[in-house]
Structure formats: structure tokens, C-alpha cells
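queue> holo job accepted (magnesium ion)
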Amino acid sequence: MFEGVNASDGIGIGVARIAVEPDLSFTPHAPEDAEAEKARYAAAVEKFIGQTNAQIESMNAKGLDGAAAIMGAHIEFAEDEGIKDMVNGSIDSGMCAEQAVSEAYGTYYTMFSNMDDELFRERAADVLDVRTGLLADLLGKEVVDLSTLPENSVVVVHELTPSMTADIDRDHIVGIVTETGGRTSHSAIIARALEIPAVLSVLDATKNLKGGAMVVVDGSKGKVISEPTDDELEHYRAKAKQYAEEKAALEAYRGKETVTADGTKKLLVANIGNPDDANAAVEHDCEGVGLFRSEFLFMDAKELPTEDEQFAAYQKVALRMKGMPVIIRTLDVGGDKEIPYLNLQHEDNPFMGFRAVRYCLNNPEQYKVQLTALLRASAFGDIKIMLPLVTTLDEVREAKALIEECKKELDARGVAYNKDIEVGTMIETPAASLIADDLAAECDFFSIGTNDLIGYTMCADRGNDRVSYLYQVYQPAVIRSLKRIISEGNKAGIMVGMCGEAAADPLLIPLLISFGLDEFSVSAPSILRTRRIISEWTKEEADALAEKVLQLHTAAEVKAALQAAAK
Ligand code: PEP
Ligand code: MG
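queue> job finished
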């Protein structure tokens, strides 16, 4: 059994697919039998075409026609007579198949990438993909394509990056195991949004788990069992059933108001990463969107999305939410969210560097494109603008001044927008917490980003398992910070929400009720459970628990007290 971070609940039982970048190095050698070597090459081509055709079929079945067309180009390059002649000729003159394939496709790659026509240049990448596929087969290695997986796949990968998950085969993946990442890493957030059981930070998982072997992923407990015994399988199948039953029981909360046991209304909204996630949020009965991480739009693109492209994405969410509130966070680039085409300089400590609102305010013309798109979309729903990683009041003032400029420009263009659009800020740095009173005076709302707030308060990286004992929302320093932020927001009469993962923490919810949190923004699959827990507490009960907890001095004591009180 292997242990890691319990990142996304549920039990996944399937076959391990080790998705490592395969080592395609080889030692060139002269084959003894050129004909046999040519046959080895022909077999690799045939297998590659067979696999690619299967992928095309599965993509067509899912309606991914564009992707299927790209795969069609792969077949053309594998079958190309010119390339085949070149490879066979090289084998005849004494090269092994690996070297002949590598050189022939290398020649074609150089040829395509130097062409003037952009279409041809784009095909250069396809040439390399075919070379990788053929070489992997000749060397007996497997290339795992996350976009078309066999049924019941447990993907084992060093790190699951947001871009890898963009086109992951959601229908056939039943579990995720990674070697890095903590509960609030973006891999974990995405896994939870997709409802895929996940265990992260399993040491050397890609080496120690066997590709093709049966594996159980217990995403609730953070355990991975390779080649389970019959007894273990029976145990986990029963657990999976129990998990499904608990989920079904939550259906009783669908369509209900989110209220505490004594009738105080709370707003229960969803965190989303792209416009399509809005559908899942509505399916899970959200009351709006509390955080649209707009950086995913930028990460999924090859160049800066234009004003119209951004407008279309924001408008889509606004329309889908039919008048319910939609908080869209402006570009939160940096940290673990890289956008290669922005060509940001390397930094030794990117989490403390030139990122998020700092980057945006330094690139005002680029920032105004996003702000203008947001303003335009505000004519189609209740869109609110949220600033990430704020540490000073100046940042809020500067951003608001840019928004005013954009409004004037839209007026001049005669384009409609909500003149009273609300502008709020994430509270996710200790600085923002300490000046919450100043910020509250000039912001329309707060949303507490506990994922970063915990990290920056405790000086403990959210993805580093070795400091995860410090990275805890139950740390008294964090609890006191939360209390302070909510109370300053309440005093100023603005809405205070929370969009960090802690908003869905069943243990923490009573404390948040006592502190006076107005809005809970959680991943779509956590909505009904959060509604249930909110409904179980009266303010009086929550206050009694908070009074006790605020007198405790260690994270362990706080967590134990919350666990003892949990209903
Ligand atoms: C947070 O920091 O809590 C947050 C919601 O933002 P992100 O996880 O995208 O950094
Ligand atoms: Mg954050």
C-alpha cells in the first residue's frame, strides 16, 4: 500500500496507466538482418496506425471532430511513402530502425518548420508526435495519451498540470495518483471538480506502481493499493457503494434554500475554471458563481485571448447563471499558474514575485482588455469583478481607476455595461487580512482565499507535503485571521465570502457561521454536502463552539475540538 495526500474523495478501482514522458534514448547499432529490421519498422507503423484509428473513433464518438482531424494527419505521416522509403533506405545502408526513424522524421520536421506557410509549420509538431509514437513502440515503451484512455484507467503521473487536465478523457478515468501536490494544489482542485478520486504526493508512484496492474485509489483516506487481494477488493467495493449511497442521500438538499438551523440565509455558490464548468455548477444546484478563475482561459490559449474572446466566455457564464451572482477574478497568473506566451522572467520565488494583480497593474493596456470584456459581459448578468493577491489599498485604487477608464471608453463606444458593477477583493495574504478594515471601506465585497492565506500566513507551501503539518486551516494563526477578516467585512456592511477550499471543510463550517461568513464558494460536487452542514447548525451552537476553539493554542487542539463537535 502507498500513502499520499487525500485530494479528491471517493474510491476508484481500475488499471494503472503510468503516464511518464518515455525515455526514448537508444544506442545506434548496425542490425544483423536488414529485412528483419524493416519488418520491425513496418510492424511499428501498423501498430501506430491501429492505435491512432482507435483514438479517432473514440474522439468522434465524443464529438471531438477537431481533435480527430489532427489524429488523421498523424496517420498520413505514418503512411507517407516518401518517409517510408527514406527509413527503409537508411536501414539498407546499415542503420537500426530506431535511428532510421529518428533521422527521417527529423529531416521532415526541419523541412516543415522552415516553411513559410503557417499551416505547414503547424504540422511540424505532428511529425514529431508520429516519431515519438513509432520510437516508443520500437523501444517497447508506452506513451499514455490522457485524452483517449481505455476504460477504467487510473492515471499515474508525476504531476497533473492544469493544461494536461484540459482535455483529459473524463469518461474513462476512475482515479488519479501523482507524485507531487497538496490538497489545494491545482491538480487537486481540478480532480475534485471532475469528481475523480485522487491521491497526490505518493513518493515515486510512477516507478513503484505497475503499469497495467489493478489498483485501488482511496481518495478519501489518501491510500493507493496496488494489485489488491480479493478481500481488499471486496472491502473497497463496499466502500465505493457506501460512498455512492451517501452521495445519493444528499439529493434531499437539492432545490432547497441554504439556511442555518435557525433560518439565517447563506449564499452557496460554485468555483469554476471555465465557462463549461458553469453547467456542472448548475447541475449541482449552485446559487451562482463565487469564483471564476479566469486564468484558466488564458492558460488554455496559445496567445492572449482578445477582448471579444474573453467577453464571449464571461457572457456565457453570466447567461448560464440567469441573474444569479457571478464573481469573476481577474488574471491570477504566477505561482503554479504559468502562461508561457507571457514570457515572464524566471524568478527564484515565484509565489512571492511578480504575479496576479501586480503583473496586471504593470501591464495596464493588457489588463484593460480583460476589464473591458468583464464590463461588457456585465450587461448580461450579475457580474462582479474580483482582484487577486491584493496586499495594499493602492492596488485596489489603481484597479478601480482602470475600471473607470474602461467605463468611459465603453461609453464613448456606445456599449452597454452595468454602471454599478461591484468590485471586490480576494483576501488571501496576511497583509490584506491586517488591513481588512481599510480594504472593506473601498471594496464592495471580500472573498477569503484560504488556499493562499494559509500558505502565506504559515510560510508553508500549499503543495509541499513536508510542511503540510503547518499548512492547516486549523492553525490558531489562521483561525484568528479568518475571524478578523470576517468581522471587519461585517462591520463595513459588505458581503464576506470564502472561495478557498476551506469553505467546504465540514469541520470548519460551524466556525464560519459563528464568525458571520455570508457566502460559501465551493467546488460543484461539494455544494449539496455544504448545504447540509450549514443546515445543521444554529448561530447559538456555532458561537458556543467558536468561543471554545478561540481559547485553544494548537492546530491539533482546534481540530480535535471541531471533530468532537461535528454532527
Ligand atoms: C485561494 O488562494 O484560496 C484561491 C481561491 O485562489 P487559488 O486557489 O486559485 O490560488
Ligand atoms: Mg489564491
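queue> The chain has a mean pLDDT of 92.
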